[in-house]
Amino acid sequence: MKKFLLMLLLAGVCIPLGVRAQAPKKVSIEGTVTEYNTKEPIAGCVVSIPTLELWVVTDAKGRFRMPSVTTGSYTIEATCLGYEPLSYKVTVSASIGALSLRLKESSLQLNTVTVTAQRGRSINSSSTIDRQAMDHLQATSVKDVMQLLPGVLTANPELTNSTSNFVGIRDLPNSMTDGKDANSINSSSVGVYVDGAVVNNSAMLMGGKAAAFGQQTSRGIDMRTISTDNIESIEVIRGVASAEYGNMSAGAVVVKTKQGRTPYEIRVKTVPDTKAVSLTKGYALGSDKGFLNASIDYANAMKDIRTVEESYDRGTFSVGYTNTFNRDRTPFQFNAKVSGYLSRGTTKADPDNISQAERKELDDRNLSINLNGSWLLNKSWITSLKYVFNTSMTRQYARQQMAPSALGVANPGALENGEYLTEFTPDNYLSDIRNLSMAYYTTAKMVAELSGRYGKVYNKAMLGVEWNNSGNTGKGQYYEGVRPMSFRPEPFSDIPFLNQVAVFAEEKATLPIGKTSLTWQAGGRFTYMATDQLNDKWAVDPRFNAKYTIISNRAPKKVRELSLRAGWGIQTTLPALRLLYPFPVYIDRVSFSWGGTAETGPVAAWTTFVTPQSDMINRDLKMQYSKNFEVGLDFDMFGVKGGITYYNEKMRNGYTLRMVPQVLSFREYETYKGTEVPVYMDDPNNPRQPVLGVGGEPLDYRDEKIFNTASVKKPANDGKYDKWGVEYTFDFGQIRPVRTSVVVNGAYMTMTRKDSEGVLLYDTYSSVKVPIDGKNIYNPFLGAYYGGKSVSSGSVYTRFNSNINLITHIPKLRLITTLTVQCVWLNRTRNLQADGVYILDDDNNPVYGDFSNGTNGKMIYRDPDFYMNMDGQLLPFNRDLYNDPTYGAAYREYLQTGSATTTFVENSFKPYFMANLRVTKEIGRIAQISFYANNFTNSHPKMLLKSTGTYKRVNTDIYFGAELKLKF
Q1: Quick one: which of 33, 183, 595, 836 could link to 45 by a disulfide (CB 3.0–4.6 Å)?
Q2: Which fold has domain 2-105?
Q3: How far apart are CA 250 and CA 538, in angstroms?
């Protein structure tokens, strides 16, 4: 609440101060936008003054008129699809009637071509990747584009891999040897926005049931479903985002698709395991009638080109219309797009596979409708009104056919508590499990902006509201034919739709201070979740950024630009439906088993324990959030442009599933060797309690109790990590004699994971009986450990890497090549030692200490912190219990032993390198050929993992591909 009041105070103070200042004079700017060489007018070009948030769109004759422009010095920008952006500095003291802006068509003939990630326009840490960079990279999905960011290692595309197509920002994967798999908590916290609308999967409930091809709900957005062929630009926000962006705590990926006139473009891509083709076109519909953009693409990938056993197919399409109405007064920009995808993952029977009937498949389809735009009102109380409306439906159908490891086995399936006779699987048993998800998402957002110059202060205020609705009407898990093993239905349609409402406000002001200037941005986002499943339904995200510009756009001198910036903020990821509405859990325990006779067949009775949904809900679940801080330096001096950023992020309350211990009471019958079939009868000792018996006499049984810890997993907030590092980019400019630019980027990154720190977790209970008082009985105790049973309490990952890019551009040949040398200078990881870890001396006495240098061959041990008895009492544990004459064997079952005496020894690789090559050649104005080869020297040095004594090869596999683009 204090943060909420502070932000309201800031917004309330700044806006009135600006309004009270004397308003400068208002004038108009008119002009034309033409093509640089042919001087033909360009329609649909956006001419803007970013400082004032003013914009207009040229008409069919390339003309524009911008009324009510405050006098002052500005940068006017002109942008149009297929043309290089133009920035033009102008001092506006009176109306301008004939401003001429000439744009150059994007081509390798230009002297300046950008094929790397560029610094974003925000005052936080962000990078922009434009169309030329994506063409040169030959990206198949948005995941491929991320390797242009500082600190990211090269990863080969793998469309058949369901875990390698999620993005993490400022992320260190768990594996030291590659960079393809993003950390799951990090990737699930990345916000993805396409044309202003958030891409959501919070209502996706299939999870691991999606036959190994689907969108794993715990990892975020599957980037395979977003094709790059119809994308104009991608902005990746790494720092503290604007308050406009919500439901994210690890950065954001903002995608803008093509809008405007373009020629027909056909792309054909081929790599060893993937083939892709696409067609895009932007139509001009006539004078002031707008533009129509259409695209379609198809990709096929094989996990192994030697077999058809596993494949992935993806097709995407989009049709968009854009137009600007009332251009000369209050222009209203309208964009409408219908898009979707169809992907299919299949695991087919291999000719060499004995189990020909086994297969997995996933059919994943999406249809989206997006409306977005802006209305430039240019009034004294409002400058513009932006809007976004998006609705989408995602249908996932998964099917898995599987033969069991054994036939004729008991198959329990009761839906209520109790002991039941079970059916048996037939000899021709083949499970056929289906899963149908129908997820719906609707987003509506409205943002009002007020921009202008008040005295010497440039000010922009923003106030917005956003509504999100999500739900799933799918049938969920079901089957055809014979009931699968221990099958229970999970109808998604039983879960209600969820509404979320967010209000956000932000103030941005630039204040000149002599020859310098200070820009600050302060805002906050307030989100409410309309659900009765949480006690705490609010998320409050204050966010602040500031930039102090010391030198800006100075005429050619040794120091042309120099600025400092900093940011701090809280960013929250909201819980998904799967966490708010978990399904009931069914646990089956065998009570009786009899092999039967040749005439009767076997008989089995199992006891079913049901944990209802009401007991699975965690109403005390907190919102996952991240506190982000960064400070950076941007410069252009001594011929070098670039930036250095220090960041520090602390993620807390990460969403996890925590095992909950239960005590299960059931009957366990003595071994029966008779020939008469047992049937249920009333228990003489317990009236109205059915019991198995023969000939009117109950069978002998024992009342047993046993712990269960593996099945019941409630939503929890046990995830935690700390990240800090330094990102850097240095552009040394072009070496003119060889027309080669040198760009170096990279990062030093450290990530510490301490999941479940301070949380008491229970051991996985073993149902193997232990000797007590000369009898074998179920263990009456359950061990509990702070942070879990492992001798390790977490892990630390550290990496320092650089990408040295040598970019050779020869405009006369329409040729550009990029040689990237990837240097990993430092790559370390180590397991953090849990509290209470010890070794035994020669007298079997515990010796505690720091074992980061190993234990000289001695085994590592850890005792439980507590133990639970069958009455549910939690009691402190001490080592003397191991020698208890009665229960010693039961207690010793929970003594944790480290698997290696070098568990806590740091793994540190010596520096290793690899080289990638990319070549793009234009053939006139109709064709473009591109080629790339990752790790073309096939560098795979072996590195020793000291913690395990094994060797691993580093660097990605050699990989190559080519692309042909035709334009007409």
Answers
A1: 33
A2: Immunoglobulin-like (2.60.40)
A3: 19
